[in-house]
């Protein structure tokens, strides 16, 4: 059992990483179904929340079936973050997470996101402002530091624990690294093994297979793993890792029927959450991920990204189920894309 303040998670929980333009309620519903133990919203601008921006407000939507769920905010100003925390509290998530890791220029250069990482005192003050403004358990997600010569995460971890955060998720890269190179979990392991640290430490970065998850669990001793990119188009990763850790065996790969069922469900949730026009539109970015590895997919993909009604889309899924019946995917089609170029918030 892992405790984040009053929130109880199973042993070695698997967390769905917060991902802007990806981890919205429809995607979270699918990941929950496939074994995610704790999920986060996309990050939400504290300034946006205070100004009542529609986009920021909409991201506060959470549903009972996805609990436990955390709302993630970012910002570079104590007062704004404190006010945003109060707004978040009204929506009653299970926890409130602060992002100190987003490397995207728009965010970092405004002094929020990983930009804060250059200044440990500021990181601590911002965190304290949030902790003091809410009765929700506060957690932090961050990177190793600003750059190679400034990996201050060990100090950050201790000082953030001292001001009251209840868990820390660490992406094993620096801000300057963006998504380049391999995530380095050495420091994450060191923090976990620091006897001063009593809060759960979650490792994040490049987990894309059950083998790697198990190896990193054993090597670094973290309390759980956070998974981002590998879940995009492949939410099965959560149950696959759990099954492998429990039995040493692999679950059978999802069939074409499983994939199409997830497409249908994701689409249905998108429509319910937004409306048919926006829901169908936003779902378009997901099909290629869910259907990666299928031969001669172009014709269907073109239909899926142009048709405008759920009925027509379901008819395409029906046809695909017939055409590809019995198709087995050669290997888990997971790709850790270098998102800093594609990232919709870049
Ligand atoms: C499309 C995309 C959007 C992201 N948006 C956020 C975000 O809103 N908040 C955040 O803390 N991290 C964000 N991240 C970073 C991820 O949460 C995670 O730390 C990173 O992708 C490394 O984990 P992975 O290797 O499992 O993908 C984003 C990553 C991607 C790929």
Instruction: Tell me roughly what share of residues is in helical segments.
Output: 40-55%
Extended strand count? 10
CATH topology of the largest domain: TIM Barrel
Supply the CATH class of the largest domain. Alpha Beta
Cofactors, ions and other ligands in the entry: flavin mononucleotide
Termini Cα gap: 37 Å
Taken together, the total number of domains comes to 2
Which residues sit in consecutive blocks of at least 5 with pLDDT less than 50? 341-346
Explain this structure to me?
Helices cover 42% and strands 15% of the residues. The protein has 346 residues and is α/β, with parallel strands linked by helices. The chain has two domains: 2-251, Aldolase class I (TIM Barrel), CATH 3.20.20; 256-323, Orthogonal Bundle (Non-ribosomal Peptide Synthetase Peptidyl Carrier Protein, Chain A). It has an eight-stranded parallel barrel with strand order 3-4-5-6-7-8-9-10, surrounded by five helices. Helix 9 (210-220) links the parallel strand 9 and strand 10 (224-227). It is globular. Bound molecules: flavin mononucleotide. Flavin mononucleotide (FMN) is lined by residues 17-20, 22, 42-43, 72, 99, 101-102, 141, 171, 204-207, 227-230, 336, 339, 343. Residues 17-20, 22, 42-43, 72, 99, 101-102, 141, 171, 204-207, 227-230, 336, 339, 343 line the site of flavin mononucleotide.
